[in-house]
Amino acid sequence: MRRPRLRRSAAAIVAVVAAAALTACGDSGSGTDGGSGALDAPGAEVLEKATDKTTIEFWHAMKGANATAVDQLVADFNAQSGGKVEVKAVFQGSYDETIAKYKASVQQKSTPALVQIYDIGSRFMVDSKQVVPMHKFIEKDGFNAGDIEPNIASYYSVDGKLWSMPFNSSTPLLYINKEAFERAGLDPTKPPKDLTEIGELAKKLTVKDASGKTVQYGFNAAIYGWLVEQLLATDGKEYCDNGNGRKGLATKVQFDQETAVRVAQWWTDLVKGGYATNTGRKTDDAQAAFKSGTVAMHLESTSVLRGYVDAAKGKFTVLTAPYPKVSASSTGGPIIGGASLWINGVGHSDKEKRAAWEFVKFASGPVEQAKWHTSTGYVPINAKALDEQIDKDWMAKFPQFRTAVDQLHALPPSVASAGCLLGVMPQARKASEDGLEAAIVGSKPAEQAMKDAAASVQGAIDSYNKSVG
């Protein structure tokens, strides 16, 4: 499952519920260091001494083939737990719907023991004072976290310590229609590396019929804020201030900077010139355009690769390439996407917290991550998963899956690629989409559009920061 676009209803409640949720925590939570007492990480002996089975709920947002993979993962864990633990996977809807339901559960004091929260919900989860930081369990058990991919771990870490366990991690890719390239006399094994090159090739890959109607566009992508975040990172630029919110609370977003304006103008020019189709913000529509074979180049997450390969059978060959950089001089790399697992401490017994951790350990192991990778297309968070035979066989059969892994390993972690920790990041993403769309449809010049978009989220940032300050 790819990362869904923010729904307006969820965005609208972020700042309000943030303050309410933090108030509901009272004094029972922890500080940013994980606190003590109720939120300590219990030892394994609490399960060993248990005389009955410990049952916990695991809230998630996976659907389709990814939900099937989650159910299998849970079934495998329950089977090997020796009757001590039973995890019940409960689908809660989209990422936005899941975090909205989680915030409601905080107020109702009925949180699940384990919850999957998308990347941009991380700042809220830290500030909620509901969770036991993952590093507490890691330190308690002497768990080897060194096998977690560094670029993935960096996103979910604060002050160098892991707060949640990465679960379904994605990275953006450039998707290519091989046959479209070949028909245009282009080499599909030599993909464009930056926006300028994409623009040049898009002109060559745009095809019109005898009546002048465009039957194939050179480029397409959803008007999706995540893609803007990725391009800023590839240019080494930070999305928000204070070290991307990692040296203190971020006080402003920075997608009105020169790089973002350049991206908006580039996109606008392609659509205006007729070399890119504007399918709007709905990611399903952009995906459908590429899967239909009427788009030659397309930006999307690696999490949709399995679906793309299946959909293109008999029509065209899907190839993948590294996500483009803004320019030839850009030296950064993209940001991790997807979601991670958080263990709730408030309102949960030591047995429940330990049971949740035992499942997290199981899910992050090399064998399970290899199964997860090959079943979904998400990047394995455990580097050793790539050594498993099932993964080796899969990569040999579908080399398109290697691109995301190679891209992940290409650059060391940086502040820019770690992503922005912002309490109202969902709203910020929507605002960037407002700006990008305004530029593309021509209602505002690109520079003004991105400037107004950044300003529009300032009130929400200030309100959130005041609620947690």
Major sheet characteristics: 6 strands, mixed
Mean pLDDT: 90
Helical percent range? 40-55%
CATH architecture of the largest domain: 3-Layer(aba) Sandwich
| Count of discrete alpha- or pi-helical segments spanning 4 or more residues | 22
CATH class group of the largest domain: Alpha Beta
Structural class: alpha+beta
Q: Give the CATH H-level superfamily of the largest domain.
A: Periplasmic binding protein-like II
CATH topology of the largest domain: D-Maltodextrin-Binding Protein, domain 2
Radius of gyration: 22 Å
Number of strands: 13
| Oligomerization category of the chains in this entry | single chain
Any low-confidence stretches, pLDDT <50, length ≥5?
1-37
In terms of DSSP E residues, the strand content is 5-15%
**What spatial form do the alpha-carbon principal axes imply?**
globular
Number of domains: 2
How many angstroms separate the termini?
35 Å
What does this structure look like?
By secondary structure, the protein is of the alpha+beta class. It has 22 helices and 13 strands. The chain has helices at 8-25, 45-48, 65-80, 95-107, 122-127, 134-141, 150-155, 178-183, 195-205, 225-234, 241-245, 258-273, 283-291, 305-312, 350-363, 366-376, 389-397, 402-410, 415-418, 425-440, 446-456, 458-468; strands at 54-60, 85-91, 114-118, 131-132, 157-158, 161-162, 165-170, 172-177, 207-208, 214-220, 295-301, 318-322, 337-344. Strands 1, 2, 3, 4, 7 and 13 form a six-stranded mixed sheet that branches. Strands 9-10-11-8-12 form a five-stranded mixed sheet. A hairpin with a 2-residue loop joins strand 5 and strand 6 (161-162). Helix 3 (65-80) runs antiparallel to helix 16 (366-376), helix 10 (225-234) packs across helix 20 and helix 12 crosses helix 21 (446-456). It is globular and about 75 Å long. 55% of the residues are buried.
